Amino acid sequence: MPLMRIDLIKGRRTPEQIKQVMQIAYDVTRDTFGVPEDDRFQVVTQHEPYEMCLLDAGLGIERTDDVILIQILSTPRTTGQKKAYAKAAVEAFQREMNLRPEDLMIVFANNHAEDFSFGLGKHQFLDGGL
Q1: What residue range is the signal peptide (predicted)?
Q2: Which of 54, 72, 104, 125 lies at a 20 to 30 A Cα distance from 60?
């Protein structure tokens, strides 16, 4: 059950393009993490350009205002899965949206079954609902 937070610069993409960003990120998650269909939890936040500062930590990566930041909160994944996700995501965004590889930043964070409540005040992973 990955939760994806997708951050974009406001006004750079149409609603259809934002939906495409979400779909690409979801498709890559299904392919690399093996999540089931309809296991989809995504939140898009758009920011003024001055509200996002994604420097390169001295790596020489120059970003544009087309930058996409994807944060994936998920149960632990292997290093191989994370590498496969990053590679597949860059390729998919470049192929389908002509996004420069420098403009895609991905951050993974781990959580566990007890960290989720999908609603009703229950912990469905722990209570047998999932």
Answers
A1: none
A2: 72
Residue 89 is predicted with a pLDDT of 98
Angle 47-41-17 (CA atoms, 0-180°, nearest 5)? 50
Mean pLDDT of 24-36: 95
Catalytic residues: 2
pLDDT at 87: 98
Domains and CATH numbers, the chain: 3-127 (3.30.429.10)
User: Rounded to an integer, what distance in angstroms lies between the CA atom of residue 92 and that of residue 86?
Assistant: 10
Structure tokens at 124: 């469905």
- Encode the chain in three state secondary structure: CCEEEEEEECCCCCHHHHHHHHHHHHHHHHHHHCCCCCCCEEEEEEECHHHCCCCCCCCCCCCCCCCEEEEEEECCCCHHHHHHHHHHHHHHHHHHHCCCHHHEEEEEEECCHHHCCCECCECHHHHCCC
Q: Is 45 within 8 Å of 5 (Cβ atoms)? A: yes
Distance CA 38, CA 1 (A): 10
Mean pLDDT, range 44-59, rounded to an integer: 94
